[in-house]
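Notes from the 1:1 (GR / supervisor)

We went over the backlog. Supervisor wanted to see one worked example end to end before approving the batch request, so GR pasted a single chain during the call. The sequence is below; no edits were made to it. Supervisor asked that the structure be written out right there so they could see what the output format looks like.
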Amino acid sequence: MDLLESAFSGRMRRTSHSHVVNELGKAIVGGIYPVGSILPGDSELAGRFHVSRTVLREAMKTLSAKGLVVPRARIGTRVTDSRQWNMFDADVLAWHIERGIDREFVLHLCEMRLSFEPYAASLAAERASPDMVEKLFTLAGRMAEAKSSQELVMVDLKFHLALLQASQNPFMYGVGTVIEAALIVAFGLSSPEKAPRKFERVSTSHKAIIEAIAKHDREAAATAMRQVILTGRSDALDRMIGEKTV
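Structure output shown during the call:
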């Protein structure tokens, strides 16, 4: 199963309401309904999705809560400026990824990660238990032993989520789980393809973070994490450029 399919497997649509939200959300994020446009009327949408007006109204409330639309009296439901969309909403983030990510997405994600992951690493250097440190070392070791890029990506994800947990700040871990799908994409772009010998480099860079944590060196842990993120950003952008030139 594809990595993104795995990431989204827990978000399967099982109701009429969620189906309408998903289809309209993807259409808005994908530009079928551009910013500032008015969505089709209730009658048209209810007929298209074969749902009641009640279900449709609830779906619109959900999209409004995600920041994608706003109802206007005597005008209709208008698509809001993309700056108002809640990028920490799992659905909104998934719709962006399904649409296809670009250089700007990678840069924005990296900036966001830099805003909290280095500090989480510094907190882990102060708070992580010996068991947590051992778990991180184990995960870093598994990176070098990965049999494929996909396996490396999933171990990489587990490592970063475990480190956020080691910070013992529930908000840090919460942010990580919310952007889990985006992290999978980022790690997938930055991971070496068909070059297991390069997996050792990834492992070594992550071990530098843990070694600083084990020494309770907050500054070194933050610096090592920052370097991992910046290296990943560079590798991801290089790979995107390479894929465009093929």
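Supervisor's comment: The first strand starts at residue 69 and ends at 72.
Batch request approved.
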